[in-house]
Amino acid sequence: MNNLFNTISSTIDQKTLEQIGQQVGLTPEQTKDIGSGVLSTIFGGLAKQATTAEGAQAITTAAQSHDSSILDDVVGAFQDGKIDLNDGSKILGHIFGWSEDTVTTTLATQSGVSTDQISSMMKILAPLVLSAVNKEQSSGGLTDIIGSLTQSAKAANDNSSLPMQVVTSLLDKDGDGSIIDDLTDIATKQGGSFLKKIIGGLFGGSKTT
Fold first, then answer.
1. The whole model's pTM is what?
2. Is the pLDDT of residue 18 over 70?
3. Of 133, 132, 100, nearest to 118 (Cα)?
4. Which residues contact 82 (CB under 8 A, 6 or more apart)?
5. Cα(34)–Cα(16) distance, rounded to whole angstroms?
């Protein structure tokens, strides 16, 4: 099961952090920490979307239109204008819908930066996420999209000081504060064990600030 967070983070070096930080007005250290939290949230939103056949197909189709080669040189992609913030905005609208403002505000509150800074970072990172999905699809490594997105959400959160509140609220169907039961239920209904083997390890507990 491929970890899409690793696919992205392996391409983001200090120079890339500085480039993104300059775009959103944050230090490289803040960019790395908050960016991981933002990625966790985007992965979580996509994981929720992928729980239906239509949603999973929409993700794979959208990913096909995002050039995976930008991950080979993210700074160069910035300089060449290949990372389109308008595209990022559209992606976020599809993922979060009317909840986008709430997600942005919550992340801003948790991280102590402005909603504009969070919004800008989300618009930058959303296209990179779909490029990562495309890269894994093209190599045949993405055979379990829900499991990969869920694992990636947890991995990204583990690299951030932000709590997992936003991701939990996105995936928690019954409002009990836990997404373990909800994801297990999804796995059961779809007749597979794609999440059962990892579910306990992925969301055994939430971080606290």
1. 0.78
2. yes
3. 100
4. 67, 70
5. 14
Element (H, E) at 13: none
**pLDDT tens per residue across span 78-114:** 888 888 899 999 999 998 888 899 889 988 988 899 9
DSSP 97-129: GGGHHHHHHHHHHHHTS-HHHHHHHHHHHHHHH
- The answer to whether residues 59 and 145 touch, using CB atoms and an 8 Å cutoff, is yes
CA-closest candidate to residue 97, choices 46, 158, 162: 46
How many residues are given for the chain? 209
Q: Cα dist. 17→8, 33, 76 in Å?
A: 12, 10, 13
HSE, CB side, 13 Å, CA atoms: give it for residue 2. Answer: 17
- Token output for 35: 């960016």
**Measured in whole angstroms, how far is the alpha carbon of residue 44 from the centre of its chain?**
6
CA distance 139 to 58: 19
Tokens of 54: 């239509």
According to DSSP, residue 79 is labeled: H
At how many degrees (to 10) do helices 28-49 and 53-64 cross? 130
Give the whole-angstrom CA distance, residue 130 versus residue 76: 18
